[in-house]
Amino acid sequence: MPPLPIAFLLLPLFFLLLAATSRAGDPSPAPAAVPQPRGFYINCGADKEVQVGSIKWVPDAGFIAVGNASAVDKPNILPVLATLRHFPDATARKYCYTVPAVKGSRYLVRTTYFYGGFDGGAEPAVFDQIIDGTLWSAVNTADSARRGMSTYFEMVAQAQGKSMSVCLARRPDTKSSPFISSLELVNLEDSMYNTTDFGKYVLSTVTRSAMGAKGEIISYPDDQYNRYWAPFMDGNPTTESHSSIAPADFWNLPPAKALKGGITTSRGKKLTVQWPPLELPFASYYVALYFQDPRTASPYSWRVFDVAMNGKDFFRGLNASAAGVMVYSNMMQLAGKTEILLTPNGTCPVGPLINAAEIYQIVPVGGRTATRDVGAMEDLARSFKNPPPDWAGDPCLPRQNSWTGVGCSDASPVRVLSLDLKNRSLSGSLPDSIGNLTGMNTISLSGNKLSGPIPDLSSMQNLTVLHLDGNQFSGAINPSLGNITSLKELYLNNNNLSGLIPPSLKTKPGLVMRTEGNKLQ
């Protein structure tokens, strides 16, 4: 099941905000003493740091090597929406930001898009976004652009290595440049959303609601992880808490402000809430519901009721005390309109209530390229002085967005099988770690400007074709090439190699070798 289309993944944010705004939708500045939430806050296309409330946004130059920066010509615009980075190169299969991470740690990833007519076009491009090797969703901001609004997407994912990549990619219907306004990676606690197997899934945000709340979106500094909680009202009565709320008492650490309000009904009545306020496509979802009795704690301050969702039991005999409680389902099948039904216990002195809720679509991870291969390909990209523009992120995945010139297997984990970058004016050298690509069967780097020695490739026992002709490689031919049992074609002609041709290559049966145009004996 693909991720939800954009209409279900976002809450548009008005861009006509004061430059001092501390968080989306809240014009009051954050207290100066509040520390910045842990993570990275990247202002795409910017050339200097900008402080927005307590959050310092940094330029994106250190996280991406491709694309063009552009200003957005709109008055009174939020600083993080005043610039963007766009990607006019239609030959690249993807355009990737690479952000440092801690392997095994959990992150909230947020991408924000504000078109603002930066390219003089009538409407923004439609394109895909990718996290590591997983296709996240399509990005279609046309409706928000017509209303002069920005659009954001969120995902909760786990770092599989020392960095995470967030990429944009063209689709068959992409007519103009993909673009991005800002990118956030926020560290989450290990206890948050910990019933999800993040080795197999990521969580794509559908919505996060503060029930019975009015006014602005709740976010940082009220939520120390800068999650967005949108006000939700319906025709039911509302209530406000008078007791102290400790977020640490709840799984997922919701902000106290999101639990202050609630939707309720009178004693003995069932409470029906149509939430989320949209129709869901059939998929699996993570749902978290939060309850807290708003009355001052006492021996009589208890509410007991059953919780059902779309007619199925969610939790029976829930006691929503003044301390509060959270219940969840981590693999719930939902489709269409969704209804929460709270049915009170017959002796409960007050009606049921609900304070906050979250829902995420569960998205299967789109496979993984072997860690050893990823490391070797990243080393190779760094060794080239001018690698192809899409050489960032996962080398193989998604398959339609693999690196230019890279062929990969269908196995799990995915292996790099071939490299074809002939006649691309590449300069640089080959790192020793290229030998870690033990699944490789073909390397074709003919007609470039690569230099330095040829490294030891004897561990690449599946290699059948090695074309390094027409470059500037120097030094002796590495005798380890004779130890590659499967090698059938070795083209080293027209380089700056010198010394003796190793006997193991001269006498290797079935090998077609070319060495002319060197200083070999």
UniProtKB/TrEMBL annotation:
Cellular component GO terms, alphabetical: membrane
UniProt xrefs under Pfam families: LRR_1 (PF00560), Malectin_like (PF12819)
Membrane topology, record value: Single-pass membrane protein
Family matches, as InterPro entries: Leu-rich_rpt, LRR_dom_sf, Malectin-like_Carb-bd_dom
Broad class of where this protein is predominantly found: membrane
Location of the Malectin-like domain: 42-362
Location of the protein in the cell: Membrane
UniProt keyword annotations, A-Z: Leucine-rich repeat, Repeat, Signal
Gene3D superfamilies, alphabetized: Galactose-binding lectin, Ribonuclease Inhibitor
Signal peptide: 1-24
PANTHER family for the chain: OS07G0107800 PROTEIN-RELATED (PTHR45631), REPEAT FAMILY PROTEIN, PUTATIVE, EXPRESSED-RELATED (PTHR45631:SF159)
Protein name as catalogued: Predicted protein
Protein source organism: Hordeum vulgare subsp. vulgare (Domesticated barley)
